[in-house]
Task: structure prediction
Amino acid sequence: MNFREFVKQPLPMFLIFWGALSGLFYLVVWYGTDRSDIFLDSTYVVFDGAIIFMALTFIFVYKFYGMKSFEGKVWLIMSIGGFLWMFGELASASKVVAGYLDVQSGALDYLQSNLDNVIIVGYLFFIAAFVYKAMYSKLYFDAKKIGMVVAVTLAFAIPSVLFVCLPVIGSDEITDYEKFVDVAYVSLDIVLLGLGAFIAIYWGREVSKGWYLIALGIVSMTIADSMIAGLDWQGIYYDGNFFELLFIGSYLLFALGALYQKKIHESFI
Amino acid sequence: MPTEACKMVQEELMFLGDILCFSIVKKGLAKVGSMPDIATPIDLTRALESHIEPAIVSFVGPREAHDIVLKIKTKLSKMGAS
Result:
Protein backbone atom coordinates (compact mmCIF):
# COMPACT_ATOMS: atom_id res chain seq x y z
CA MET A 1 0.00 0.00 0.00
CA ASN A 2 1.40 3.39 -0.94
CA PHE A 3 0.98 6.49 1.19
CA ARG A 4 -1.51 8.12 -1.18
CA GLU A 5 -3.87 5.15 -0.90
CA PHE A 6 -3.35 5.06 2.86
CA VAL A 7 -4.39 8.67 3.49
CA LYS A 8 -7.61 8.13 1.54
CA GLN A 9 -8.80 5.62 4.15
CA PRO A 10 -11.33 6.86 6.74
CA LEU A 11 -9.19 6.73 9.90
CA PRO A 12 -6.06 8.39 8.45
CA MET A 13 -8.31 10.94 6.76
CA PHE A 14 -9.98 11.70 10.08
CA LEU A 15 -6.60 12.20 11.82
CA ILE A 16 -5.43 14.55 9.06
CA PHE A 17 -8.74 16.40 9.30
CA TRP A 18 -8.23 16.77 13.07
CA GLY A 19 -4.77 18.20 12.46
CA ALA A 20 -6.15 20.73 9.96
CA LEU A 21 -9.02 21.59 12.30
CA SER A 22 -6.57 22.15 15.16
CA GLY A 23 -4.47 24.50 13.03
CA LEU A 24 -7.59 26.44 12.07
CA PHE A 25 -8.77 26.51 15.70
CA TYR A 26 -5.49 28.03 16.93
CA LEU A 27 -5.55 30.58 14.09
CA VAL A 28 -9.07 31.65 15.01
CA VAL A 29 -8.18 31.86 18.72
CA TRP A 30 -5.10 33.97 17.98
CA TYR A 31 -6.38 36.25 15.27
CA GLY A 32 -10.16 36.11 15.66
CA THR A 33 -10.51 36.66 19.42
CA ASP A 34 -9.12 38.95 22.12
CA ARG A 35 -6.97 36.01 23.35
CA SER A 36 -8.57 36.10 26.75
CA ASP A 37 -8.02 33.06 29.00
CA ILE A 38 -11.26 31.36 28.04
CA PHE A 39 -10.35 31.39 24.34
CA LEU A 40 -6.76 30.29 24.92
CA ASP A 41 -7.94 27.52 27.26
CA SER A 42 -10.47 26.34 24.67
CA THR A 43 -7.50 24.97 22.69
CA TYR A 44 -7.53 22.09 25.21
CA VAL A 45 -10.42 20.67 23.17
CA VAL A 46 -8.38 20.05 20.02
CA PHE A 47 -5.18 19.33 21.96
CA ASP A 48 -6.73 16.68 24.17
CA GLY A 49 -8.72 15.33 21.23
CA ALA A 50 -5.45 14.60 19.41
CA ILE A 51 -3.91 12.76 22.37
CA ILE A 52 -7.12 10.75 22.94
CA PHE A 53 -7.13 9.68 19.28
CA MET A 54 -3.47 8.71 19.56
CA ALA A 55 -4.03 6.53 22.64
CA LEU A 56 -7.13 4.91 21.14
CA THR A 57 -5.31 4.24 17.85
CA PHE A 58 -2.48 2.51 19.72
CA ILE A 59 -4.98 0.21 21.45
CA PHE A 60 -6.74 -0.45 18.14
CA VAL A 61 -3.42 -1.38 16.51
CA TYR A 62 -2.41 -3.50 19.51
CA LYS A 63 -5.70 -5.43 19.28
CA PHE A 64 -4.91 -6.23 15.64
CA TYR A 65 -1.58 -7.91 16.52
CA GLY A 66 -2.55 -9.40 19.87
CA MET A 67 -0.52 -10.15 22.96
CA LYS A 68 1.17 -13.22 21.48
CA SER A 69 2.85 -11.19 18.77
CA PHE A 70 6.07 -9.27 19.49
CA GLU A 71 4.66 -6.40 17.40
CA GLY A 72 1.54 -6.51 19.60
CA LYS A 73 3.70 -6.14 22.70
CA VAL A 74 5.43 -3.12 21.11
CA TRP A 75 2.06 -1.42 20.59
CA LEU A 76 0.83 -2.43 24.03
CA ILE A 77 3.84 -0.72 25.63
CA MET A 78 3.22 2.31 23.39
CA SER A 79 -0.45 2.25 24.42
CA ILE A 80 0.46 2.39 28.11
CA GLY A 81 2.74 5.37 27.41
CA GLY A 82 0.03 6.98 25.30
CA PHE A 83 -2.61 6.50 27.97
CA LEU A 84 -0.33 7.96 30.64
CA TRP A 85 0.21 11.06 28.51
CA MET A 86 -3.50 11.24 27.80
CA PHE A 87 -4.29 10.89 31.51
CA GLY A 88 -1.82 13.66 32.33
CA GLU A 89 -3.23 16.04 29.73
CA LEU A 90 -6.85 15.31 30.67
CA ALA A 91 -6.08 15.92 34.33
CA SER A 92 -4.55 19.23 33.35
CA ALA A 93 -7.64 20.14 31.32
CA SER A 94 -9.93 19.05 34.19
CA LYS A 95 -8.15 21.44 36.50
CA VAL A 96 -8.76 24.30 34.04
CA VAL A 97 -12.43 23.36 33.65
CA ALA A 98 -12.80 23.06 37.45
CA GLY A 99 -11.36 26.58 37.73
CA TYR A 100 -14.06 27.97 35.40
CA LEU A 101 -16.78 26.11 37.28
CA ASP A 102 -15.32 27.26 40.58
CA VAL A 103 -15.03 23.69 41.78
CA GLN A 104 -12.49 22.90 44.47
CA SER A 105 -11.16 19.37 44.43
CA GLY A 106 -8.35 17.93 46.51
CA ALA A 107 -8.05 15.02 44.10
CA LEU A 108 -7.58 17.36 41.14
CA ASP A 109 -4.99 19.38 43.03
CA TYR A 110 -3.15 16.17 43.87
CA LEU A 111 -3.30 15.06 40.23
CA GLN A 112 -2.12 18.44 39.04
CA SER A 113 0.89 18.35 41.35
CA ASN A 114 1.84 14.90 40.06
CA LEU A 115 1.16 15.46 36.37
CA ASP A 116 4.80 15.69 35.42
CA ASN A 117 5.55 12.35 37.07
CA VAL A 118 2.79 10.69 35.05
CA ILE A 119 4.03 12.19 31.79
CA ILE A 120 7.66 11.32 32.55
CA VAL A 121 6.70 7.68 33.18
CA GLY A 122 4.81 7.81 29.87
CA TYR A 123 8.04 8.79 28.13
CA LEU A 124 9.77 5.76 29.64
CA PHE A 125 7.15 3.45 28.13
CA PHE A 126 7.67 4.98 24.68
CA ILE A 127 11.42 4.51 24.99
CA ALA A 128 10.89 0.92 26.22
CA ALA A 129 8.64 0.16 23.22
CA PHE A 130 11.28 1.32 20.73
CA VAL A 131 14.01 -0.61 22.51
CA TYR A 132 11.84 -3.75 22.59
CA LYS A 133 11.13 -3.40 18.87
CA ALA A 134 14.86 -2.99 18.20
CA MET A 135 15.53 -6.30 19.97
CA TYR A 136 13.69 -8.08 17.15
CA SER A 137 15.49 -6.31 14.33
CA LYS A 138 19.06 -7.24 13.54
CA LEU A 139 21.19 -4.26 14.48
CA TYR A 140 24.31 -3.83 12.43
CA PHE A 141 27.06 -1.28 12.52
CA ASP A 142 27.03 1.22 9.70
CA ALA A 143 29.41 4.10 10.40
CA LYS A 144 27.49 6.53 8.16
CA LYS A 145 24.12 5.74 9.74
CA ILE A 146 25.44 5.76 13.30
CA GLY A 147 27.23 9.02 12.53
CA MET A 148 23.97 10.59 11.38
CA VAL A 149 22.13 9.41 14.51
CA VAL A 150 24.88 10.78 16.76
CA ALA A 151 25.05 14.08 14.81
CA VAL A 152 21.28 14.65 15.03
CA THR A 153 21.23 13.77 18.73
CA LEU A 154 24.20 16.00 19.57
CA ALA A 155 22.78 18.89 17.52
CA PHE A 156 19.75 18.77 19.82
CA ALA A 157 21.51 17.75 23.02
CA ILE A 158 24.22 20.42 23.14
CA PRO A 159 21.93 23.50 23.01
CA SER A 160 19.40 21.73 25.26
CA VAL A 161 22.03 21.10 27.94
CA LEU A 162 23.64 24.55 27.56
CA PHE A 163 20.50 26.66 27.39
CA VAL A 164 18.04 24.66 29.49
CA CYS A 165 19.65 22.06 31.77
CA LEU A 166 22.61 24.06 33.08
CA PRO A 167 20.64 27.27 33.81
CA VAL A 168 17.91 25.18 35.47
CA ILE A 169 20.38 23.28 37.65
CA GLY A 170 22.13 26.50 38.65
CA SER A 171 18.92 28.37 39.42
CA ASP A 172 18.02 29.43 42.98
CA GLU A 173 14.47 30.34 42.04
CA ILE A 174 13.02 26.86 41.63
CA THR A 175 12.77 23.84 43.91
CA ASP A 176 14.84 20.68 43.53
CA TYR A 177 11.75 18.84 42.32
CA GLU A 178 11.14 21.46 39.61
CA LYS A 179 14.79 21.14 38.60
CA PHE A 180 14.39 17.36 38.40
CA VAL A 181 11.29 17.69 36.22
CA ASP A 182 12.85 20.20 33.82
CA VAL A 183 16.06 18.20 33.45
CA ALA A 184 14.13 14.92 33.10
CA TYR A 185 12.03 16.32 30.24
CA VAL A 186 15.11 17.54 28.37
CA SER A 187 17.04 14.31 29.00
CA LEU A 188 14.12 12.15 27.89
CA ASP A 189 13.67 14.30 24.80
CA ILE A 190 17.35 13.81 23.93
CA VAL A 191 16.99 10.02 24.31
CA LEU A 192 13.74 10.03 22.36
CA LEU A 193 15.20 12.16 19.57
CA GLY A 194 18.19 9.80 19.34
CA LEU A 195 15.78 6.90 19.03
CA GLY A 196 13.70 8.86 16.51
CA ALA A 197 16.78 9.45 14.35
CA PHE A 198 17.68 5.77 14.67
CA ILE A 199 14.14 4.72 13.73
CA ALA A 200 14.04 6.97 10.66
CA ILE A 201 17.52 6.04 9.45
CA TYR A 202 17.40 2.30 10.16
CA TRP A 203 13.72 1.28 10.04
CA GLY A 204 12.10 3.91 7.80
CA ARG A 205 13.81 2.59 4.70
CA GLU A 206 14.29 -1.05 5.58
CA VAL A 207 11.30 -2.06 7.71
CA SER A 208 8.33 0.14 6.93
CA LYS A 209 7.67 3.76 5.96
CA GLY A 210 5.29 3.95 8.93
CA TRP A 211 8.38 4.45 11.08
CA TYR A 212 9.18 7.66 9.17
CA LEU A 213 5.88 9.05 10.43
CA ILE A 214 6.67 8.02 13.99
CA ALA A 215 10.18 9.49 13.76
CA LEU A 216 8.71 12.74 12.42
CA GLY A 217 6.29 12.73 15.37
CA ILE A 218 9.22 12.40 17.78
CA VAL A 219 11.10 15.28 16.13
CA SER A 220 7.98 17.45 16.22
CA MET A 221 7.49 16.65 19.91
CA THR A 222 11.08 17.30 20.95
CA ILE A 223 11.08 20.67 19.13
CA ALA A 224 7.81 21.58 20.87
CA ASP A 225 9.18 20.52 24.26
CA SER A 226 12.31 22.63 23.79
CA MET A 227 10.39 25.68 22.64
CA ILE A 228 7.95 25.43 25.51
CA ALA A 229 10.74 24.77 28.04
CA GLY A 230 12.44 27.92 26.73
CA LEU A 231 9.28 30.02 27.00
CA ASP A 232 8.48 28.56 30.42
CA TRP A 233 11.99 29.32 31.63
CA GLN A 234 11.49 32.97 30.63
CA GLY A 235 8.07 32.94 32.32
CA ILE A 236 6.14 33.72 29.11
CA TYR A 237 4.52 30.38 28.36
CA TYR A 238 0.76 30.07 28.57
CA ASP A 239 -1.86 27.58 27.37
CA GLY A 240 -2.94 28.04 23.77
CA ASN A 241 0.56 28.88 22.54
CA PHE A 242 1.15 28.18 18.84
CA PHE A 243 3.96 25.75 19.63
CA GLU A 244 1.32 23.39 21.00
CA LEU A 245 0.39 22.66 17.39
CA LEU A 246 3.69 20.77 17.17
CA PHE A 247 2.48 18.50 20.02
CA ILE A 248 -0.83 17.97 18.26
CA GLY A 249 1.09 17.17 15.07
CA SER A 250 3.29 14.68 16.91
CA TYR A 251 0.33 12.85 18.48
CA LEU A 252 -1.39 12.60 15.11
CA LEU A 253 1.82 11.47 13.39
CA PHE A 254 2.25 8.73 16.03
CA ALA A 255 -1.30 7.59 15.35
CA LEU A 256 -0.84 7.73 11.57
CA GLY A 257 2.41 5.76 11.85
CA ALA A 258 0.69 3.09 13.93
CA LEU A 259 -2.17 2.82 11.43
CA TYR A 260 0.27 2.66 8.52
CA GLN A 261 2.06 -0.27 10.18
CA LYS A 262 -1.23 -2.06 10.62
CA LYS A 263 -2.27 -1.45 7.01
CA ILE A 264 1.05 -2.72 5.69
CA HIS A 265 0.72 -5.93 7.70
CA GLU A 266 -2.94 -6.35 6.78
CA SER A 267 -1.89 -6.46 3.13
CA PHE A 268 0.05 -9.66 3.86
CA ILE A 269 -2.90 -11.60 5.29
CA MET B 1 -4.82 -30.32 9.46
CA PRO B 2 -1.58 -28.68 8.22
CA THR B 3 1.24 -30.86 6.93
CA GLU B 4 4.36 -31.39 9.07
CA ALA B 5 6.37 -28.98 6.88
CA CYS B 6 3.66 -26.33 7.18
CA LYS B 7 3.49 -26.78 10.96
CA MET B 8 7.25 -26.29 11.16
CA VAL B 9 7.07 -23.02 9.20
CA GLN B 10 4.17 -21.81 11.34
CA GLU B 11 6.09 -22.58 14.53
CA GLU B 12 9.13 -20.65 13.29
CA LEU B 13 6.95 -17.63 12.56
CA MET B 14 4.94 -17.78 15.77
CA PHE B 15 6.73 -14.64 17.05
CA LEU B 16 4.42 -12.74 14.68
CA GLY B 17 1.44 -13.95 16.70
CA ASP B 18 -0.70 -16.97 15.85
CA ILE B 19 -3.38 -15.25 13.76
CA LEU B 20 -0.92 -13.26 11.66
CA CYS B 21 1.41 -16.24 11.30
CA PHE B 22 -1.32 -18.63 10.09
CA SER B 23 -2.79 -15.99 7.76
CA ILE B 24 0.55 -15.04 6.19
CA VAL B 25 1.49 -18.70 5.57
CA LYS B 26 -1.97 -19.46 4.20
CA LYS B 27 -1.90 -16.48 1.80
CA GLY B 28 1.66 -17.33 0.72
CA LEU B 29 0.61 -20.90 -0.06
CA ALA B 30 -2.48 -19.70 -1.91
CA LYS B 31 -0.23 -17.57 -4.12
CA VAL B 32 1.66 -20.69 -5.22
CA GLY B 33 -1.53 -22.75 -5.64
CA SER B 34 -1.33 -24.71 -2.41
CA MET B 35 -2.85 -24.72 1.06
CA PRO B 36 -1.73 -25.71 4.58
CA ASP B 37 -3.39 -29.17 4.45
CA ILE B 38 -1.46 -30.27 1.36
CA ALA B 39 1.61 -28.01 1.42
CA THR B 40 4.83 -29.75 0.48
CA PRO B 41 8.28 -28.43 1.47
CA ILE B 42 8.65 -27.24 -2.15
CA ASP B 43 5.36 -25.29 -1.98
CA LEU B 44 6.49 -23.73 1.27
CA THR B 45 9.87 -22.72 -0.15
CA ARG B 46 8.13 -20.99 -3.06
CA ALA B 47 5.63 -19.35 -0.69
CA LEU B 48 8.52 -18.14 1.47
CA GLU B 49 10.19 -16.46 -1.50
CA SER B 50 7.09 -14.94 -3.03
CA HIS B 51 5.13 -13.80 0.01
CA ILE B 52 6.33 -14.78 3.47
CA GLU B 53 9.81 -13.20 3.33
CA PRO B 54 8.53 -9.72 2.28
CA ALA B 55 6.01 -9.98 5.12
CA ILE B 56 8.71 -10.80 7.67
CA VAL B 57 10.85 -7.92 6.34
CA SER B 58 8.04 -5.49 7.19
CA PHE B 59 8.25 -6.65 10.82
CA VAL B 60 11.95 -7.11 11.52
CA GLY B 61 13.87 -5.67 8.58
CA PRO B 62 15.75 -7.42 5.77
CA ARG B 63 18.72 -8.80 7.68
CA GLU B 64 16.82 -10.51 10.48
CA ALA B 65 14.21 -11.68 7.94
CA HIS B 66 16.93 -13.17 5.76
CA ASP B 67 18.32 -15.15 8.72
CA ILE B 68 14.86 -16.43 9.67
CA VAL B 69 14.05 -17.47 6.09
CA LEU B 70 17.44 -19.14 5.70
CA LYS B 71 16.83 -21.16 8.88
CA ILE B 72 13.38 -22.25 7.64
CA LYS B 73 14.70 -23.11 4.18
CA THR B 74 17.43 -25.27 5.70
CA LYS B 75 14.82 -27.19 7.66
CA LEU B 76 12.59 -27.48 4.58
CA SER B 77 15.44 -28.84 2.48
CA LYS B 78 15.97 -31.55 5.10
CA MET B 79 12.28 -32.35 4.72
CA GLY B 80 12.58 -32.83 0.98
CA ALA B 81 12.65 -29.42 -0.69
CA SER B 82 15.53 -29.06 -3.10
Notes: The two ends of chain A are 13 Å apart (CA to CA). Residues 70-101 of chain A form the longest helix (32 residues).
